[in-house]
Amino acid sequence: MPHTDPLLPAHRLAQGEGGSAALGALLATAVTALANGAAERGGPVPAGPPGELAARWEAQLGTPLPEHGTGATAALAEVTRLLAAGAADPADPACAGHLHCPPLAVAVAADMAASALNPSLDSWDQAPAATTVERSVVAALAGLAGYDPATASGVVTTGGTESNLMGLLLARDHTVTRHFGVSAARTGIPSGARLRVLCSRAAHFSLARAAGFIGLGEDAVIAVPTDSGHRMDPSALDAELTALRRRGELPVAIVATAGTTDLGAVDPLPRIAAIAAAHGTRLHVDAAYGGGALFSDRLRPLLAGLAEADTITLDLHKLGWQPVAAGVFLTRERAAFDPLDRQVAYLNPEDDEAAGYTSLLGHSLRTTRRPDAAKIAVTLKALGRTGLGTLVDRCHDLARHAADTITAHPRLTLYAPPTLSTVVFRYVPADAPEDVVDAVNARLRRRLLREGLAVVGRTTAPDPTTGREAVQLKLTLLNPDTEPRTVDALLAAVVRAGERETP
């Protein structure tokens, strides 16, 4: 028989009749279930081999589509508890493997409100106030980046990958129109056009994928050498631009990185911007990670020259403490969005637009789009620039403390001084050959996961002396409430795991 719940029927709408009362009760249920699941987990990540964990969760979940429902309260409590018990919890200080931030409570609450109202930003009449909120948030962040908010534009995205795709897409269309007099969006890339994208060897992998998506091909991406600080070498960039023009190839864009995923390295933006201008090439800056430095008085100078970029990627579900997703794509000029502009009869007819019912349809690669700007707006207003800057600085302080602890330990080796909040290092057993060191670091990380003790990142980086790619460990410190002694305890756990995994 179908389950009946007289207080909380599962079909109750969040904003319909009785919806507010039902929503309040369900939120209380969810909060309790989160706490119960976290207590069951008992650490940053559930302990156990992944296959056994998956089997346990599948058994607990049962069929997700029963013939008859179990009721709203029971279903919510069951699935929420399971998610929390099986989470890699970024709020736990020992969960420090990825650019995966613990979200602010105020942002989560704002996200809930946006979900309850469920506006869609593809037309004004689906999202009247939300349309204004997104425009205002974009203008504020454009101003923070150094653009003129009166002439700049932008859009909230799903993250750095979508924003980088948009940056290359608009650069492609600009370049093809300028050099061939046609629209790549409408007629395609002209036959024989040899288009190229230049970025550093440390740039994000999404750029190569984006080049493939927009018809350039991943092989069109030219990796420019980096200097000893893992930043793009401007001299090598200038030489590469000169060489590709001699080969009859056409640069679509230079992509500079402000905050590489592993080391947080920031390319020399002023010099790269000057080279882009000299060669008449568009500049996109991927500041998905490093863009958070704009909030900090201490770290903001790292991003000098950012405003010279034609387009910028930001990502506030990193150093912005937002629930996923909270990416932002900015353009210095509104006209950059022209290739995406569309008039659709059922969404934004021309006479509605002329009457002031303007939509954001032509700013995004998506049609239906949730109001992720709302949680960003709440956070910006609640904390202000200086409040967010304090959180950024706390994470930077933790990274510097971790680096000092690593440097002082005889069995740990720091790869490079931290720039933002990531720390790359490795455990080095005494008198072990390099292949053994690699294997021990890989195994100790899995041991920490299997025992539910910590989430530590893993990457590879070239040995400064030999150039050999070596396995490295990584702490990504995005929890501003973490204490230095907790970081020390995490590093001590790494050492113990390394000792146990050393042959």
Automatic annotation (TrEMBL):
Cofactor: pyridoxal 5'-phosphate
Keywords noted in UniProt: Decarboxylase, Lyase, Pyridoxal phosphate
GO molecular function, one term: aromatic-L-amino-acid decarboxylase activity
Superkingdom of origin: Bacteria
An example Gene Ontology biological process: carboxylic acid metabolic process
Sites of N6-(pyridoxal phosphate)lysine modification: 318
Keyword Lyase: yes
Any single Gene Ontology cellular-component annotation: cytoplasm
InterPro entries membership: PyrdxlP-dep_de-COase (IPR002129), PyrdxlP-dep_Trfase (IPR015424), PyrdxlP-dep_Trfase_major (IPR015421), PyrdxlP-dep_Trfase_small (IPR015422)
Entry-linked Pfam families: Pyridoxal_deC
Homology family: Belongs to the group II decarboxylase family.
Name used for this protein in its record: Pyridoxal-dependent decarboxylase
Species of provenance: Streptomyces albireticuli
Lineage, highest ranks first: Bacteria, Bacillati, Actinomycetota, Actinomycetes, Kitasatosporales
